[in-house]
Amino acid sequence: MLRFQHLVLSLSLVALASSPSQAADAPAVAALKEKGLTRSGRFFVIEAEQAALEKWKAARPVLAGHAANVERKSRADAAAEELAQLEASRVELQNTLSDLDQQVNPQGFQPGGFGQGGFEQGSFGQTGFGGQAYLAQVNTQRAWVRANLVEIASLQRAARSETPKDEKALEAEMQKSLEAVRTALAEFREAADAVVRRYDELDVDPAVKSAFQALEKAKLGGLKLGPTPEFGNALKALAKAERTYLEKKSPVVSRTRSRPRR
Description:
Layout: H1 2-34, E1 37-40, E2 43-46, H2 47-104, H3 129-161, H4 167-203, H5 206-217, E3 224-225, H6 229-245
Keywords: Coiled coil, Signal
Coiled coil: 76-103
Signal peptide: 1-23
């Protein structure tokens, strides 16, 4: 029983100690609610902020989808360029191989000589050291060229695997996803700008200023006017997305609102 009475007394003291703060807090909070502000953690925010953030959440998968299409197009373009370079190298090597083949066939490299004048038997002829050495050199070059042609053929197969079967379909998909990105970013930009403008209006509203001053006197100065850090981060991401996908600078709607409000 004694412990119970002590607990009741402690609770009474706590209630008395907190009642002045609560009394000072209630009118201020009511004034902020009249302005359309509700408490969210350390911030008083407008309902439109959450609605704008929902638009940003909806835009993120749209951006990811278009980024994937851009990556696919980039790989396809790189593969096409590589294929062109490989084909040029293949043609050059094939011509070289044809020239070397001509040098060892009966018309190009004859046992008794080379060319119209020929070489004397015993020096560069079939039985001479010079002819055998030259033939060996040509065959070595042919083997090197053939090995490179095999390597090029392998690289061409790999490059073709990165090339879309229907380039027009990929281009159409990219355009479609880009339009979806433009729509999503425009919707969030419109909503975000409206939110920022409303916070700017509230920031200079005498009733709002008075309410926050009352909260500060009641030792609740840690409570601030929005937007929240989440909204600020979304605005930064929006500006980056506009630069990346729309190639434009974001319009300046207001001063930075991420700093603390008093």
